[in-house]
Amino acid sequence: MRMIELIHKKQQKEMLAENELHWMVSEYTRGNIPDYQMSAMLMAIYFNGMEEIELTHLTEAMAESGDQIDFSNIDGFTVDKHSTGGVGDTTTFILVPLVASVGAYVPKMSGRSLGHTGGTIDKLESIPGYQVELSENSFIQQVNDIHCALVGQTGDLAPADKKIYALRDVTSTVEAIPLIASSIMSKKLASGAEGIVLDVKVGEGAFMKSVKEANKLAQTMMSIGKNVGRKMTAVISDMSQPLGYAVGNILEVKEAIDTLKGHGPEDLTELSLVLASHMAFLAGIGESIEDSRSLIEEQIHNGKALEKFKEMVAKQGGDASYIDHPEKFDIAGRQIKLEATKDGKISEINALDIGHIAQILGAGRETLKDEIDLTAGLVLNKKVGDSVKEGEIIAVLHTNKSDDELEGIQDLLQQAIRINWIASPNKLIHKTID
Questions:
Q1: Measured in Å, how far apart are the chain's first and last C-alpha atoms?
Q2: What is the CATH number of domain 3-49?
Q3: pLDDT at residue 324, rounded to an integer
Q4: Which fold has domain 331-420?
Q5: Catalytic residues
Q6: Residues β-bridged to residue 198
Q7: pLDDT > 70 in the chain, percent
Q8: Which of 38, 86, 294, 356 is 20 to 30 A off residue 104, Cα-Cα?
Q9: Looking at residue 157, what DSSP letter applies?
Q10: Does the reported pTM lie above 0.85?
């Protein structure tokens, strides 16, 4: 088999066979196919797309290129959630204990932050003592014992994806739907869960800017999952403004704790309830989505979801007293208040700009080697559609950086948060596909 023949085949809009795709991925992962040939293949896929079954075979090959987690020793149906990334997206902290508290098994592996999107693992490390690394045996044992575990990605999951993604980034093929879908789903398949709920973000703070694009990506990932026997649901949710009010590691953990206590932000609470209901339903809990949601809501009202979170934190070595007393968390040395410059309504809070501002404050990183400030970030006091008065505080910046390091930051924030007389908030949930 020769790579040049496969490139030509895809250039002619022909479908690559399963054995050809497995050979290509395997040989490229081993270093036997040069980058320039794989770049040519990626460009051919970018322009000509892939058939559904062809894309499924590519994704399977990528998933099988490294370690695969085996959950066959877990005592029940396993369910996972994947978000395509956003700003202030703390749903993982809420969903894992919430869904586990109704009896589902939730083995969750997450990553670190890069760029403006926050990383779940960085946020978890805000809790003193919390161990984000467990052996596979310990991970599975904990899920059997308490129905959930939340750890960093272990082993070498989908190494082919890492190599291919690096090429996509420098060959302008990042935006190809088949390549996005195979990248996400290869890691999900390697992670082992039987049911997957996808939270596909759309808006300024998301990778997909239109509902049409987000729907196409969701449908593509759904088809891959179903073709390999996974139960799938996708929710298309808005990311034109940050989710909740807090952006930054410790700040978001505290907001997630508030939500588990039943008094979190309206949008974060609602999205968490929607996603948790679908996760529970995939796991066979509840006779309908409505029934699942009722069970989920009750776990917040009776405090059992919060207790499950504390149990998980303690089980993984964390100090669970921080959950009962969030005031124990470290705070940044400086709080800078942003005031409204005029009366009106909040007409826009640009999620992407807010994410970049949080990164400047110290809450994000440019490369995985960069240190982040767990106390840094910002807390919004308003959402799109809210009324404001001139001089009213609309956001508070949390940072340890000097004025020189933050020169122009307030101007950036004023540009990100627009005030007009007319404001129309976007729908939080655009569509559900199940």
A1: 39
A2: 1.20.970.10
A3: 96
A4: Aldehyde Oxidoreductase; domain 3 (3.90.1170)
A5: 82, 161, 168, 183, 187
A6: 82, 234
A7: 97
A8: 86
A9: B
A10: yes
